[in-house]
Amino acid sequence: MTRVHLLGAGGMGMAPLGLYLAELGFMVSGEDDGWNPAVRALLEQAGVTLTAPGTLPDEVQLVVHSSAVAPSHDSRRRATARGLPQVRRGEMLAEVVKGRKLVAVTGSHGKTTTTAMLITALHRAGFPCGWVLGGLFNDATLPPARVGAGDWVIAEVDESDGTIGRFSPEVTVVVNLDWDHADHYAKLSDLETAFSALLARTKGAIFLSDACPLSARLAARGGFTAPIHTFGRTGEYQGHRTADRSPGQELALGGRFALAQVTVRAPGEFNVANATAALAVAQHLGATLTSDSLAEFAGVRRRQSVLHASSITVYEDYAHHPTEIRALLGSLRRERTTGRLVVVFQPHRFTRTAQFKAEFAAALAGADHVFLMDVYAASETPVAGGTSADIYAELKQGGAADHVTYLPGDETGLLKALAAALQPGDTLAFVGAGDIELTARAFVARLKAREEREAAWQNFLITARARLGPATKLLEHEVLAAKTTMRVGGPARVYAEPAGAEDLQHLLREAGARNLPVLLLGRGSNLIIPDHGVDGLVISLGHPAWQSFEPQPDGRLWVGAGLRLKNLCGLATKAGLQGFEFLEGIPGSVGGALRMNAGAMGGWMFDVVDEVRLMTLAGEIHTRKKAELHVDYRHCAELHDAIALGAWLRPAAGVDADAIRRQIEVYQKKRVESQPREPSAGCIFKNPPGGSAGRLIDESGLKGERVGDAEVSTVHANFIVNRGHATSADIIALVQKVRARVKSVRGVDLEPEVLLYGQEWRDVL
User: Fold this and answer.
1) For residue 556, how far is the Cα from the chain centroid?
2) DSSP 166-211
3) Parallel, antiparallel, or unpaired: how do β-strands 549-551 and 557-560 relate?
4) Is residue 305 scored above 90 in pLDDT?
5) Which of 57, 157, 316, 529 could form an SS bridge with 757, CB 3.0 to 4.6 Å?
6) Under a CB-based contact definition with an 8 Å cutoff, are residues 511 and 518 in contact?
7) Rounded to the nearest 5°, which phi and psi values hold at 395?
């Protein structure tokens, strides 16, 4: 039988088996619901044909499946319908290593790392053998499987699904034993029976940990033909740490070891035991060991692997049993020199979680903060007491709830909370055997991007400060709430008030060279700043240089972009210039009014504009006539990606100043009667075609509706006011509520008019 199809081919057990089968000459195909790119590349390079999920090639003669793939899987159902034999991963592995001397590395914790260390030591010694690892080396130099030469083959043998009963090794290594896999071993005695039978089938030698009580109990039971050897601090083969040698440690060897000292490129006390076991077996097989046999050990993917090291060090580890978690966190605590130990934990299987929820809580208590993900089911259905909520309850009972974040069903929210909580110097560990690896790598990608952005900001600040004049203000983390009419919002990453066009050009060009976002802040009306602030260069034309009011010889009026509209009206009134009265009550500046084509009382900003001077974000200055600009309701297209520096306005015919003042007073009285006096951002929603947003909101019964201290005004329903301590989150939640109610009652989708500063409304609505 030569044509084999693998179900779950991307798994850490199945993928190495696929490589081994392909090298043996089998025609191998495979499928998986979620591919790791590195695993996929390895299989494709080995000539394995990868198919879409549920696609069973016609020529297949045998199906090999992971134990996590249920009989109801599409490809298994097709195989059953075609009468094809189906075997589990362990059964196939046991079959293909027959005829060779098998070294079976087994046990509850550390067998993948021990197997990898043994392979590394034998490979470095030039010892002829093949191997099948249950994972990937961090270094692609060594493949996770190789047929190799000679009589020996090294394989990691998994006990979780009972296929351990198919193996008859020459040498068996039991790294340690703990009761696990309650879905298969209902009682501890069931696990003991399975391992006792394996040791009874072992022909050449048995290696047991001297620190494992359960292994000692099996040895005392007897009935084995192969001699038993022990490894550990007091075993026949002894190893203990004498010094740390980053990124590993020095071990002193004793007992039956011919070698006195070895360097191991792996940290942690548990890796002392793993290395001692691997070296003991390598010596037993006849390999020549040297002090650097494990000095270049690459490590195994997801076994205390460092994903990122900078101000925050990020690890990932496959630990999914309380004993493993306790050992991992103990090792990480010893290694870190500053900061906190933060853990993201994804429990694996409902049955295991139900079995060990109290032990998980106790082990996780070794972290300073835990972010708890939902259980990775691994094809199981939920069982009572086997959810992440049950672990959380145990942590609460133990008094650790204040140091745990659990957001059921909201992984995105959990990771946002994690990103916000991390501090420089922290050690972060992603722990679990499910798909948390994908979560970890996606999070690290975002973390790297954030750190690269922060480096760009620091470079920007250094360069910009060297070029700007002394009158220009440049600040980090300036809180923006007080600079807005709504009085809400967080800080700007960098805030600037340039003292002139040249400094504005420097700021824009330096930001553009580093792809840093630029936002303009006028008088702070018509916008809502998020509570977390904005990661951008916020530019305000608040310096007096931008507040000019200059009547021109040709009858026009030049006004700077930073001039308040209220001041524009007052100065125009004194000068006897008519046509600007409608702008008096708009709480903005000329620049903002140009960008938004601000309007009130039947008038619009571009009704009085003749020409606009603007600066592009690349720092280029242009003058555009009104006819060259694309202006519509609440928008000027050319100012979407540019900054208005000022404008030439065309007044109406000059009249008596008292007449202008009287018209302004009429408008003021109308505003007082129709608009709220509490802090607001102006009209929240655009008027729909042929309608009034305020009327629709009022008719939907929303006046006075509140979220926190944000309230739909009782004076004008299209205003949301701040009753004192509103947050941006309150306002956004109220906007969502209003839109939903109006849609339900009136069938109209209201579109926000105010800007969500630094974000898009579509991302929150």
Assistant:
1) 55
2) G---SEEEE-------TTT-SSHHHHHHHHHHHHHH--SEEEEETT
3) antiparallel
4) no
5) 529
6) yes
7) -65, -40
Pairwise CA distance, residues 738 & 510, whole Å? 41
What is the arithmetic mean of pLDDT over 206-220? 88
Instruction: Count Cα neighbours of 160 within 13 Å in the Cβ-side half-sphere.
Output: 20
Provide the 3-class DSSP secondary structure of residue 472: coil
Alpha-carbon gap, residue 43 to 38, rounded angstroms:
9
Rounded alpha-carbon distances, angstroms, from residue 39 to 97, 213, 310 = 22, 37, 27
Q: In what order do the strands lie in the sheet with 518-521?
A: 473-479, 491-497, 534-540, 518-521
Write the burial class of residue 52 (CB in 10 Å: 0-12 exposed, 13-18 middle, 19+ buried): exposed
Residue 244 has pLDDT above 70, yes or no: yes
**224 contact partners, CB below 8 Å, separation of at least 6:** 199, 200, 202, 206
* CA nearest neighbour of 44 among 22, 71, 11: 22
| More confident site: 465 or 640 | 465
Does residue 37 sit in helix, strand or coil?
helix
Using CA atoms, how far apart are residues 549 and 651, in angstroms rounded to an integer? 13
Determine the pLDDT at residue 464: 95
Q: State the average pLDDT for the chain.
A: 88
332 phi, psi to nearest 5 deg: -65, -35
Q: In whole angstroms, what is the distance from residue 590 CA to residue 96 CA?
A: 80
Q: Counting Cβ atoms within 10 Å, is residue 728 exposed (0-12), middle (13-18) or buried (19+)?
A: buried
- Residue corresponding to tokens 């060090």: 313
Parallel, antiparallel or unpaired: strands 171-174 and 205-209: parallel
Whether the per-residue pLDDT at 258 is higher than 70: the answer is: yes
Of the candidates 315, 229, 327, the residue with the CA atom closest to the CA atom of residue 277: 229
3-state SS assignment for residue 700: coil
Q: Retrieve residue 468's tokens.
A: 């700007």
- Could you tell me the pLDDT band of residue 730, with boundaries at 50, 70 and 90? very high
Which DSSP category does 481 fall into? G
Region 203-225 average pLDDT: 88
Instruction: Specify the residue for token string 């360097």.
Output: 263
**Spatial separation of the C-alpha atoms in residues 744 and 393, rounded to whole Å:** 39
**176/208 Cα distance (integer angstroms):** 7
Residues 6+ apart with CB under 8 A from 620: none
- Does 213 sit behind a cis peptide bond, omega within 30 degrees of 0 on the bond before it? no
Contact, 681 vs 606, CB < 8 A? no
- The DSSP H or E segment spanning 139 is none
- What 8-state DSSP symbol labels residue 250? E
Nearest-angstrom CA–CA distance, 296 and 264 = 8
Tell me what pLDDT residue 498 has: 97
Who contacts 255 (Cβ-Cβ below 8 Å, separation ≥6)?
Answer: 235, 236, 237, 238
CA distance 433 to 360: 14
Q: What is the DSSP letter of 564?
A: B
- Identity of residue 383: V
| pLDDT tens digits, 35-49 | 778 888 889 999 999
Return the higher-pLDDT residue of 89 and 671: 89
**Higher pLDDT, residue 713 or 192:** 713
Instruction: Write down the pLDDT at residue 458.
Output: 95
pLDDT at 723: 94
Peptide bond into 247 cis (omega under 30): yes
Give the pair of three-digit tokens for residue 150. 């000679």
Rounded mean pLDDT of 84-89?
92
Tens-place pLDDT, residues 87-116: 998 899 999 999 899 999 998 778 888 999
Per-residue tokens: 489: 């919002």
**Residue 235: DSSP 8-state:** S
DSSP state of 719: E
